[in-house]
Amino acid sequence: MAHDPPLPNVFRGEFQDLEELRYTGPGTVYHNCFGCGPQHPVGLRVRYFKTDEGVVSPIVIPERFEGPPGVAHGGIVAGYLDEILAGAAVRHAGRLYVTGELTVRYMKPVPIVAPLLGRGRVVQDHGKYLDLEGTLEEYQSRTLLAVARGRFLPIRPNEA
Predict the structure, then answer these.
(1) How far is the C-alpha of 64 from the C-alpha of 114, rounded, in Å?
(2) What is the secondary structure of 76-139 as a DSSP string?
(3) Which of 30, 90, 100, 104 could be stapled to 24 by a disulfide with Cβ–Cβ 3.0 to 4.6 Å?
(4) Per residue in 118-156, pLDDT tens?
(5) Fold category of 50-159 in CATH
């Protein structure tokens, strides 16, 4: 399944050898998810690539999500981080999770229409829930922009 739009050129070298984590294929309930669904008309369309530590996500925040001039709205930044943590949960456990708690610390303004890198990993698996951490950083400089911590709960099979 192709994502729309395709991976921007700036990311292709770093991501070409990484395996993409997919759980939003056509016909799934998440295909139109605002955060990860590739077919949502105005969604975030977060993509996840597997790493040994968790996931990395190439991100360019569209201009439509601007808050202050040239900067992403804080709620949208939180939305991206929430999705990155969810991807890390799927990477870790092979099943879907929902957000139980999410805390975001904004370190610097997050630019729109600029290459960014999201990272997510599981900090602790408690069995009944996962504790995760994620970051959003500038792609070229790796300057830290925002940090998230979350507690995610598994979705029972009949809920997905």
Answers:
(1) 13
(2) HHHHHHHHHHHHHHHHHHSS-EEEEEEEEEE-S--BSSSEEEEEEEEEEE-SS-EEEEEEEEET
(3) 30
(4) 999 999 999 999 999 999 999 999 999 999 999 999 987
(5) Thiol Ester Dehydrase; Chain A (3.10.129)
Question: What's the CA gap between 136 and 78, in Å, rounded?
Answer: 10
**What integer pLDDT is reported at residue 24 of this predicted model?**
54
Please provide the average confidence, as pLDDT, over all residues in the chain.
Answer: 89
Residue with tokens 């939305």: 79
Can you tell me whether residue 50 is helix, strand or coil?
strand
Q: Where are the domains of the chain?
A: 50-159
Q: Are 144 and 106 in contact (CB under 8 A)?
A: no
